[in-house]
Amino acid sequence: MDFVKLSKTLSYALRHAPWEFELELDEEGWVDVEQLLTELRGYSRAFAGVTREDLVQMSGAFDKKRFEIEDDRIRARYGHSVPQKVVKTPAKPPQLLYHGTAPKFVESILAQGLLPMGRHYVHLSTDTETAGKVGKRRSAAPTLLVILAEEAWADGEVFYNGGENIWLADRVPAKYIRVQ
Ligand code: HQG
């Protein structure tokens, strides 16, 4: 089984376009594993023999823990853009979080704060290395932003754990952002 292809297809199905797979996310983003498997098997010959065990192995095969499997259900941990906002439980973040981005976005970010743009939430990382990798998707020499997350949380800004080293926020006002 091609785990990269499976991960990309699942990201698309569980974050962005579940209706293309005849799936409906519940309010926390879960879908039934058996239903997903049935749809995947019909979607591409590459997935004709896909099993629950493939999903479990693929989810653990990458640095990024993009999916969560619990009993008979599975969901994407973060990254959604479906019209219906996926409900997350607020949680107190660590003191500092990081965001890697393209230098050309920094002026706008320092004026408007970090905004979710095409997704439901702003994505933040617990370590500079992960933030650097995220930024590298947008620029060969990304800018690292340091987020005063604990201070923002104390002031009432809302954060959510995205699993492992990813945190999410509704937004991050500019006063909590420092350019590294
Ligand atoms: C920028 C991948 C101008 C923001 C990654 C970012 C991550 C602004 C871009 C996850 C702005 C949005 C998410 C403002 C934010 N003005 N630009 N006010 N506010 N931006 O892709 O954080 O591999 O939606 O800096 O690794 O880059 O798919 O967010 O550059 O974890 O699992 O707008 O997606 O994970 O871009 O990446 P994105 P992101 P996966």
Automatic annotation (TrEMBL):
Gene from which this protein is expressed: kptA
Q: Whose protein is this, by species?
A: Tumebacillus flagellatus
**Which keywords does this chain's UniProt record carry?**
NAD, Transferase
| Protein's name according to its UniProt entry | Probable RNA 2'-phosphotransferase
**General function of this protein:** Removes the 2'-phosphate from RNA via an intermediate in which the phosphate is ADP-ribosylated by NAD followed by a presumed transesterification to release the RNA and generate ADP-ribose 1''-2''-cyclic phosphate (APPR>P). May function as an ADP-ribosylase.
> Which HAMAP family does UniProt cross-reference here?
KptA
Q: A GO BP term, please? A: tRNA splicing, via endonucleolytic cleavage and ligation
The record's top EC class is transferase
Please tell me whether the keyword Translocase is annotated for this protein: no
EC assignment: the record states 2.7.1.-
So what family is this one in? Answer: Belongs to the KptA/TPT1 family.
User: Which SUPFAM superfamilies does the record cross-reference, listed alphabetically?
Assistant: ADP-ribosylation (SSF56399)
Q: Which Gene Ontology MF annotations are present?
A: NAD+ poly-ADP-ribosyltransferase activity; tRNA 2'-phosphotransferase activity
